[in-house]
Amino acid sequence: MVLQTIPARIRWSVDLMDVQPDDHVLEIGCGPGAGAELICSRLETGKLFAIDRSESGVDRTKRRCQRFVDAGRLTVRQIDLATLRVPVKRLTKVYAFNVNLFWVRDCADEIALLHERLMPGGKVFLFYEATRPEDVPQMIERTSAALAQGGFRTQVVQRKVPACVGVIGTR
């Protein structure tokens, strides 16, 4: 099997999450599985539930992270966040990278779902690769507003190289 690298932007974002061995994490938009691999490598008794709307994203994550699926630390499903019924009682963290849902359209229902399923003190980590710097202020403003309206306290983090921004919401 070919060793797949984990991009610096994904390492940075997962490092900021401070994944603990017993965390219960939801990843929205797992794509090629780099985030899932890094998150699962830090879990012991915790679990990751990864979702993606695309069949290819789900397949790629399952292939890349098969050892975590086999160990019971990772479940991957093809589903949209709006129709998700989270299979764990309570989440400690939610992670998404380059999922534009939170700044492109109304996401009040999705934010409400996350607020309901996160434990008090739980966090939502929404990251974007800032390939178009002119979009960053709008991304921050809309994402922060959506989280705040959903009952989250927000903070913004940025990385210069590669240029990334994150909005973190705390329940």
From TrEMBL:
* InterPro entries recorded: Methyltransf_25, SAM-dependent_MTases_sf
Give the signal peptide as a residue range, or say none if absent: none
Q: Which Pfam families match?
A: Methyltransf_25
Please give the CDD domains that the UniProt record associates with this protein.
AdoMet_MTases
Domain Methyltransferase span(s) in chain numbering: 25-122
Q: What is this protein called?
A: Methyltransferase domain-containing protein
